[in-house]
Amino acid sequence: MMADENDSDAEKTEDPSAHRIEEFRKRGEVASSKELTSVLVLAGSLMTLGLSMVYMYEVLSEFIEWLYHLDVSTAYTAKSMNTIVNKLVTVSLKSVAPIFLVTLSIGVAANMAQIGVLFSPDVLEWKPDRINPLQGIKRLFSMKSLVEAIKGVFKFIFILGIVYFFLKDEMHTFGGFFHLDFFQSFLYGKGFLIRLGFAIVVGLIVIAIGDFAYQKFSYKKKLMMTKEEAKQEHKQQDGNPEIKQRIRAVQREMSQRRVMSEVPKADVIVTNPTHISIALKYDPETMISPEVIAKGADVLALKIREIAKGHDIPIVENVPLARGLYKTVKEGQGVPRNLYKAVAEVLAFTYKLKRQKKALS
After folding, report:
1. Domains of the chain, start order
2. Of 72, 292, 332, 349, which is most buried by a Cβ count within 10 Å?
3. Threshold 0.90, pTM exceeds
């Protein structure tokens, strides 16, 4: 199974696209190090514990003193037991609240720093593969599982070594521990545990940094694509070239049909003179301003001129006007105010030609 995985990865030579990264992110598959989050939470907890240990001692001492002064004759009544339980719950919450809040805050912050804000409904969906025994066996013997197992063994040995050398170094201080009063013993134990905890944290930080780098590397490797995958994704994103070509052909055909039906209604054709043709119409009774009823460039421009000649529609060459209308006015829209004068002059010239032809006939 591992060999197949390696062979598959060997073919992946293309960097992951932004689309592929986003798709994996939607499925909740992101690069994050649980080791880094855990060690930051542990460090924050130890720091909070060190700062709040005296506070916890005072809270517990007050509770013990309160218990000590309870009236024994009434201590076991239902009312007294209820009071004791409530007091115990309150003391417990007050003791652990600082550590709980700091742990929660650091855990959330550490995850957000690695992956940002992420909500993935896909993770909550029920999928048969998750309970498929074959898939489970495959995951069990995957390269990822092997790496996790090696990492776990290495971490255990690493922490064991830290604890051994720390205890060896502190061994000479244990003798005086038994001659201290309760509060001094408490402070000594607090200091000892905090020092041991931070020694372990320093070691775990080294492992966490290595794990973070590995997770980033393996995540990118997982997202790498074969040339065929990159090609298929490009097609899906940009559209199949054959389909796009077919769409353009249909659009050209529809445009030509519209031109053939609209151009015969035009009053004049404005050209530049060969590349652009604009069909203009003005009906004072139904239109606020002259309208572009058809337009085209290159082959379509030639088609417009041919239809115009066939229907004896005047063709006027006006390069600036033709370009301006082509760029700024869509088919079926009125002429903008800044082109009123130029269009009015063309229409006036057209009407004059029509009157002259009519007079001659």
Report:
1. 2-236 (no CATH), 262-360 (3.40.1690.10)
2. 292
3. no
